Amino acid sequence: MTDWLREHTLITYILIFVMVAYVYHKVFATRKLPLLKLLLVYAAMAFGCYILLIFQIFGLPIVLCIAVALLLMLMTGVRAYAEKRQNRNASSQSQK
Q1: Distance CA 33, CA 36 (A)
Q2: What is the pTM of this model?
Q3: pLDDT tens digits for range 4-57
Q4: Rounded Cα–Cα distance for residues 3 and 6 (Å)
Q5: TM spans, by residue (predicted)?
Q6: Are 44 and 17 a contacting pair, CB within 8 Å?
Q7: With contact defined as beta carbons under 8 Å apart, do 5 and 52 qualify?
Q8: 27, 31, 33, 34: which has the fewest Cβ within 10 Å?
């Protein structure tokens, strides 16, 4: 897989950028930014993703590491949803 990602650099860059943007929106975007600041954030993110692409090309597993981070975020979200639902069910049963 690493060889395929090394051969298809544009797809790898887009994949890195999309995953990093998703992590940014889920973790770091606490409020809506004005358009100019948002463009500045995305420009910095694009440059940072280019650096991550260079690391990926030279053999570091950047795409895999970001994918693991996304998996951990998914697991945390599912657990928070389950706990919220359990607390809601417990509170509705205690009121009866």
Answers
A1: 8
A2: 0.81
A3: 888 889 999 999 999 999 999 988 888 899 999 999 999 999 999 999 999 999
A4: 5
A5: 6-24, 36-55, 61-82
A6: no
A7: no
A8: 31
CA 54 – CA 13 distance, rounded (Å): 9
Cβ-based neighbour number of residue 52 at 10 Å: 21
Find out whether 21 and 52 touch, Cβ atoms under 8 Å. Answer: no
What token pair was written down for 41? 């954030």
- Return the structure tokens found at 85: 């639902």
3-state SS track over the chain: CHHHHHHCHHHHHHHHHHHHHHHHHHHHCCCCCCHHHHHHHHHHHHHHHHHHHHHHHCCCCHHHHHHHHHHHHHHHHHHHHHHHHHHHHHHHHHHC
Q: How many Cβ atoms sit within 10 Å of the Cβ of residue 17?
A: 18
